[in-house]
Each structure stands twice: as structure tokens, then as C-alpha cells.
């Protein structure tokens, strides 16, 4: 899961100090749709942009384990419990995989995790919303993973090879998660009045934050041009958001849910659903750390890190002992 | 028409009870491990603990479904998991002990993994073909669980002085719950005589050897005796199980008859 809305431009101006000829050759390779690999020359800003994007993506996967993990203990059937554990495990796997992809760019996982825990790095704001009911697990799978897929499918063609390849695998799993989430919603929608109410309530709470996952509208997004030129990004935020709305609204109707937007309507001339204004002040507030669960999410990650410190230290100490014993035997 | 039970046609109740012991131990332990996911010391441990939880849950589901079939009262895996009260659970009390820190979790896991490996390995030869088939699947998974937990027992026992102290503390705290593990009761003996369950003494001897070797490699002391015997497998549980079930069962119980 990931939102591209978190991309921020690197402080340096593009390639101010890079050799013009190298830059031209680099751009030509991108234009020919060649993949850039870790040992290839790349402009500093390309590297920085990717480190930021891939690590934010990895952080989002790891923090995203928390709101969903909240329901592992209480899943209402053993099958749902299995599916949920497997799903949260997949998110952890994506995180590990993406940290490795970021490491190919010359940063360590430890540095990146330090950035997350110290609050310097961002992760997807969507995970700062709470999961008070079981229907939230359905809504996250259906909407949040659904939005993530819209963002990530184009990333399978991203110009940076390790990231593009990671995305192929991640997208397969995310699309599975999206269907599982929809299946939870379907079961609730066909269930008792209390279950239907649970589904509608979760939908009301997740609809707008899901639309915000695509980031600021194109007019307000400063970094799109360069990322598009470098084929890190292939569609604008608004294009992807529209695609998501067009895809999701009929699914909501099939479930018998009401989209919490009085202005939503189908524009017959274009075939697109038109929707009301997004409350960007909420987006900015959550992004700035003032969402419903920002503090709790970071606190949980910090606690896991601190509580696990003695375990990691012991593992390293044991590995050192093992190495020195092997040497003394040899 | 319901197929003739695979063994013990005359003693369905005993077989039902025995299968529940296996099922509930895996289910309760999976429930405990699930709480680690997202909070483990490293991402790899989130994945490893989740993996073990998933395997255990898979075993529990097969066993509960089989128990329901033996009972023949129309209880499926979910009814058995979510609508029994603590006195009706048959897991060993060790499985229900709280997660504590990573040392507590690893010691609990290792002691049960080592036990389940020996148990399932022998259960493959059961005259009950369904149990034998489940055991054949479970033993492969359990070997991985044991490799994981044993690896951590050695690493943490022989790691730093802090990790050593935490591990020894966890062993000393949890050891008393192994009393029921090493003690065969009347049901264990009866099912062994019928060819359904393995020889409990052989399982215990092999388990003890595994524990002694691992603790020795980890520079940890194995306690001499067990001070109090809880018999979770007979439905006498510690205070922890009720809390665990309250969390696990609340949603299912809150919506009687609902499908999820």
C-alpha cells in the first residue's frame, strides 16, 4: 500500500552538478524504456527521489500492519483469521522487499527505519485512521488496497529496475487482498441489519481518505513533471483518482452501499463519475501528524523497535561468537 | 449417511476429546502468536511468527473439523472454536500462557514445537487414518517451527548476558507447565492401547532429549522438576485462557447466527 501524494521534491535543483552528457545519455535510456539498474550512473536527484519514494512505500507497509493486525485476535471465523494473518504477513514481506530495493540505492534499512521512528520520514496517511470494527478490515482491503493497486500498477513499469520488479510481485498480492476485502464487504452487505450498518459505517469513514491517497490535485502537485520525465510516475494524481472512483462506485452500488458524497453523479457525456471537493485541510492535518492515530502508530513502531533491541543485539553477539569459534577451529 | 468413524467406533467420546487436545493446543498457540504480528523485534520475526501462527491455525482447523465430524452433533470448526467456554477447551496450559517478552514466547514455542514434532511424527502411524493424514501434514510444518524456535533458543541463550538472563527467567517461569506435557493420563493411555495415539512415554523421552540438547547448546539450565501440574488437557486452565477466549470469541458471540 502506498500513496504517491507524499512525494516531495529533493532540495537540490535537478542535476545542477551532474555532467550534461551523462544526463543526456541517462534520459535517452529512459526514453528507450530501458531499466536503470543499481550500478548504472544516475542523477543524484533521481536516486534521492527513489530512495524517498521506495522507503516511504516500505514504511507504509510496515505501519499498515498495525491497523489490520488490530483485528487478528478478533476475526470472526477461523478462515477469516487465517486470511488476515496471511495478509498482514504479506504487508511485512512487502516492507522487507522494498527496504531491500531501497538498499540497492546506497542506504541501509537501519537508517531508513531510524528516519521513520524519529518522525523524519513519511508513510501513507491512510494508516493513521482507526479500525474500530471488523468492517474496517473489509474496507481497507477493498478501498485502500484498491487505491494502492491503481498507484502501483504503473510502477511495475517504473524506470528503476529493482523497484519495478518488486512492484510486479507486490501488485499480485495486493490484488488478492483487494478481492479478499471486497469479499468481507459482500458478506456483510448480505448479512444482518447490524452487519450492513457496520459495512456502511466503515465505507463512510474510508471513502474520502481513500481518495486522498492519490495525493494533492495536479494543480497543487509540484513534482509531477520530473517524475513523469524520468518514468518513475506515469499518470497524474487526478488521473489515477478518477480511475479509482470510476472503478469503485459501481462496486459500492453492487454492495448496496451509499457513497458518502451528495455531489457524486455519473457524467453521461464522459462516462466518468464526478465527485465533490476533497477536504484538503484534513489531508494536510493528518500528513502533519494530527490525524486520529498518528501518535499511536509511531508509538507502536517505536515500542516494537525498543522492546526488540535486546533480541537483535543478542543475535549479533551470537553471530560474532560463532564466527570467532569457527576461526579458532580453523 | 455418516461414514463409519475410522477407529474406536465404540468410544467416540474419547476420540473426540483426544482430537480436541491436539486442535486446541494449536488454536490457542496460534491466537497468542497472532498478537505478535506487527510488533516483533524485526520484520523477519513478524514474518516468522505469522508463518507459525498460520500453520498452527491450519492444523487446528483440520482437527476441529474432524472433531466435529466425530461428535456428529453438527458443530463445525467455528462453532467449536467460538462457542465453547474455557472449561471445554482441551489445550495444554503451556499454550495459553501470555506472550510476555520475546524470550517467554520463544521458550513456550520451543517446548511445544519439540513436543509436537515428536507427537506428530509418531501419530503418522495411527490406526485412525484421518489423524494419521493430518499428522503427516503437520509434522512437516512443525519441523520448520522447531528449527525457528530452537534457533532462537540457542541464539538468545548464548547471546548477551541480558538475553541469557531473560531466557533463563522464561524457562524457570514456564517450566511448571510442562508437568502435564510429560504426564500421560487415562485418556492418553486408552487411546494408545487402541492404536490411535502414540506411546506417550516415547514422546516424552524424545522431547526431553531435544530440550536438554538445545538448552545445553544455549548454555541454559534445565530445571529439575515441575512444581505444579495444570491439566489444561482435562479442561483445568490458568486464568489466562479466559482472557484469550474473551478476545477471540467476542465478535462471533456478539452476532448469533450471522455469517462472516
Topology:
The complex is a heterodimer of chains A (330) and B (260).
Chain A lengths: L19 H12 L12 H26 L8 H26 L5 H9 L16 H19 L8 H29 L3 H20 L11 H6 L7 H19 L9 E3 L4 E3 L5 H11 L3 H14 L1 H21 L1
Antiparallel strand pairs in A: 1-2
Chain B lengths: L11 H23 L8 H29 L5 H6 L10 H4 L5 H22 L5 H29 L3 H14 L4 H4 L3 H8 L6 H18 L21 H16 L6
Describe this structure in words.
- The complex is a heterodimer of chains A (330) and B (260).
- By secondary structure, chain A is mainly α.
- Chain A contains 12 helices and 2 strands.
- Chain A has a two-stranded antiparallel ribbon with strand order 1-2.
- In chain A, helix 5 (134-152) runs antiparallel to helix 6 (161-189) and helix 5 (134-152) runs parallel beside helix 7 (193-212).
- Chain A is globular, with a radius of gyration of 21 Å.
- With 260 residues, chain B is mostly helical.
- Chain B has a single domain (5-254), classed as Up-down Bundle (Ferritin), CATH 1.20.1260.
- Chain B is built from 11 helices and no strands.
- In chain B, helix 1 packs antiparallel against helix 2.
- The longest helix of chain B has 29 residues, at 43-71.
- Chain B is globular, with a radius of gyration of 18 Å.
- Chains A and B meet through helix 2, helix 3, helix 6, helix 11 and helix 12 of A and helix 1, helix 2, helix 3, helix 6 and helix 7 of B.
Amino acid at each position: 500500500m502506498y500513496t504517491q501524494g507524499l512525494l516531495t521534491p529533493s532540495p537540490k535543483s535537478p542535476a545542477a552538478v551532474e555532467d550534461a552528457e551523462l544526463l543526456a545519455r541517462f534520459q535517452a535510456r529512459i526514453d528507450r524504456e530501458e531499466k536503470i539498474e543499481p550500478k548504472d550512473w544516475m542523477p543524484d536527484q533521481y536516486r534521492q527521489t527513489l530512495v524517498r519514494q521506495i522507503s516511504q512505500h516500505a514504511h507504509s507497509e510496515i505501519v499498515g500492519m498495525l491497523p489490520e493486525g488490530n483485528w487478528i485476535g478478533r476475526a470472526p471465523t477461523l478462515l477469516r483469521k487465517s486470511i488476515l494473518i496471511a495478509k498482514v504477513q504479506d504487508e511485512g514481506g512487502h516492507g522487507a522487499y522494498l527496504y531491500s530495493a531501497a538498499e540497492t540505492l546506497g542506504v541501509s534499512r537501519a537508517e531508513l527505519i531510524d528516519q521513520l521512528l524519529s518522525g523524519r520520514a513519511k508513510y501513507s496517511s491512510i494508516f493513521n485512521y482507526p479500525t474500530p470494527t471488523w468492517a474496517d478490515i473489509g474496507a481497507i482491503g477493498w478501498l485502500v488496497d484498491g487505491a494502492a493497486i491503481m498507484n502501483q500498477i504503473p510502477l511495475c513499469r517504473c524506470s528503476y529496475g529493482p523497484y519495478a520488479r518488486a512492484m510486479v510481485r507486490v501488485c499480485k498480492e495486493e490484488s488478492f487482498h483487494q478481492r479478499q476485502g471486497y469479499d468481507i464487504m459482500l458478506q456483510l452487505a448480505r448479512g444482518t441489519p447490524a452487519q450492513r450498518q457496520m459495512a456502511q459505517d466503515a465505507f463512510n469513514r474510508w471513502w474520502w481518505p481513500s481518495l486522498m491517497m492519490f495525493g494533492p490535485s495536479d494543480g497543487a502537485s509540484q513534482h509531477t513533471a520530473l517524475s513523469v520525465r524520468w518514468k518513475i510516475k506515469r499518470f497524474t494524481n487526478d488521473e489515477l483518482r478518477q480511475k479509482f472512483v470510476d472503478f469503485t462506485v459501481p462496486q459500492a452500488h453492487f454492495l448496496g452501499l451509499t457513497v458518502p458524497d451528495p455531489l457524486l453523479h455519473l457524467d453521461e457525456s464522459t462516462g466518468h463519475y464526478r465527485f465533490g471537493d476533497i477536504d484538503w485541510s484534513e489531508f494536510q492535518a493528518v500528513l502533519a501528524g494530527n490525524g486520529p492515530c498518528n501518535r499511536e502508530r509511531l508509538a507502536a513502531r517505536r515500542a516494537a523497535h525498543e522492546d526488540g533491541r535486546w533480541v537483535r543485539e543478542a543475535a549479533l553477539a551470537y553471530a560474532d561468537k560463532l564466527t570467532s569459534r569457527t576461526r579458532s577451529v580453523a | 449417511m455418516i461414514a463409519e468413524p475410522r477407529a474406536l467406533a465404540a468410544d467416540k467420546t474419547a476420540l473426540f476429546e483426544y482430537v480436541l487436545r491436539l486442535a486446541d493446543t494449536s488454536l490457542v498457540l496460534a491466537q497468542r502468536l497472532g498478537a505478535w504480528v506487527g510488533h516483533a523485534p524485526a520484520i523477519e520475526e513478524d514474518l516468522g511468527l505469522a508463518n507459525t501462527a498460520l500453520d498452527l491455525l491450519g492444523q487446528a482447523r483440520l482437527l476441529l473439523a474432524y472433531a466435529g465430524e466425530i461428535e456428529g452433533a453438527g458443530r463445525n470448526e467455528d462453532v467449536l472454536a467460538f462457542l465453547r467456554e474455557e472449561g471445554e477447551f482441551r489445550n495444554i496450559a503451556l499454550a495459553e500462557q501470555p506472550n510476555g517478552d520475546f524470550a517467554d514466547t520463544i521458550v513456550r514455542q520451543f517446548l511445544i514445537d519439540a513436543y509436537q514434532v515428536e507427537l506428530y511424527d509418531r501419530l503418522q502411524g495411527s490406526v485412525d487414518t484421518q489423524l494419521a493424514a493430518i499428522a503427516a501434514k503437520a509434522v512437516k510444518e512443525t519441523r520448520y517451527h522447531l528449527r525457528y524456535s530452537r534457533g532462537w533458543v540457542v541464539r538468545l541463550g548464548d547471546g548477551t548476558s541480558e538475553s541469557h538472563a531473560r531466557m533463563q527467567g522464561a524457562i524457570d517461569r514456564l517450566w511448571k507447565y510442562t508437568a502435564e506435557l510429560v504426564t500421560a493420563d487415562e485418556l492418553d493411555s486408552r487411546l494408545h492401547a487402541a492404536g490411535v495415539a502414540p506411546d506417550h512415554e516415547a514422546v516424552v523421552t524424545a522431547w526431553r532429549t531435544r530440550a536438554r540438547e538445545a538448552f545445553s547448546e544455549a548454555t541454559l539450565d534445565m530445571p529439575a522438576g515441575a512444581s505444579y501440574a495444570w491439566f489444561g488437557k482435562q479442561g483445568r486452565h490458568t486464568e489466562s485462557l479466559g482472557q484469550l477466549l474473551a478476545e477471540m470469541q467476542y465478535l462471533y458471540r456478539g452476532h448469533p447466527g450471522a455469517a462472516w
